[in-house]
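Exercise 4. Each item below gives a protein and its sequence. For each, produce the structure-token representation.

Item: Arsenic efflux protein (Vibrio agarilyticus).
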Amino acid sequence: MSSSLSFSLPRWLGLSQFHLAYKRLLLPVVLIAFIVTERTREMTVNTLSDAFWAVSCYVAFTLAIYHYASLWMGRKHRLVALYDNSRHYQVLFAALLGALPGCGGAIIVTTQFVSGRVGFGAVVAVLTATMGDAAFLLLAAKPEVGLGVIVLGVVVGCLTGWLVNALHRDDFLRPQMTRWTSAHEKLSAVASNSVEKKALNLQGAFWKWLLIPATFVALLGSFQVDLNAAFSLPEMGIEWLGAIFMVLSMLLWAMTKDINDYESAVSEDNKLRASHPLQKAAQDTNFVSAWVVVAFMGFELVTYFSGADLGSWLGNWGVYMPQMGLMVGLLPGCGPQILVTSLYLSGAVPMSAQLANAISNDGDALFPAIAMAPKAALVATFYSAIPAFIVGYGYYFLVESSVF
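Answer:
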């Protein structure tokens, strides 16, 4: 008789020898654990409800409009064609592409730099102007602030790109052409197994049916309407409904992709070009929501268990806050940047940190840049950090500090 025993779980669970096939499942499982635990139940339900009604619904609505508009504008390709003609205007159009919420515009410019269609100044401009998926969150929660930050990013991106053009040639640090998998090829990848495909379809169906009614409820809540009374729900009814919807969306998100490395953890999921706009909006919404939930729950849990006011504690960092925002912005991927924006929306970090992060943030575009032109990516990121430092500390000393 063997002295060792092995145990294998059913294949349909996606588990073998205790190996979790979808590591993202840790998030909804932890959320459910906090809900069933009496001590943390009320705090968790309220936090998840706020995240769903006040953030996810508006993000989904904003993303749906964006993806429908992109579908219409994508047929013309006017901006992409225009920046091929002039070194000076390349920077302007690259900054405008970077200003588009999400990472698509920035990925276009970084990949075309390698192919020789745009210069290095355009790469710096687009990486400076882009805010990645965090732009969706800021536009949905505070549209006037979001638009202001986007406009600022375009201006700073143009100025930085033109300055780089004055210092360097267009082919500065451009690598020799080799065979590489383009970002466009990567974006055409789809889920490879039936579980992921079903989860993707359910993601789209979830937001297809919830988008309009959920946005309506979110708007009523924004106008301080007592939703439980308005819909004749019991006490905490709308809060429980929001928490359930959030957990369901996180379960669907968790089953669409495994976490294999840093990039797969902090980058939005790959999407088919031919996917319906609502399908794309659903995938992006759940990705943004996951990082919002991590930020909101982390903030509340630290406050709850430590008894400390995390917002006041971070506020004591004062002059170091813009530097914190800048340093997080240097990390590739949109996940860490969504964390900073979530903390800004909750009042835990000041506008100076948000501005420094928005300008230094390169989003998912940094991953193909690192893969195809690592030296150019490193230098471009360094160049984008300089205006981020200037803007972040400029705002801090002019508005937030009592120095002036």
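Check: DSSP finds 20 helices and two strands in the chain.
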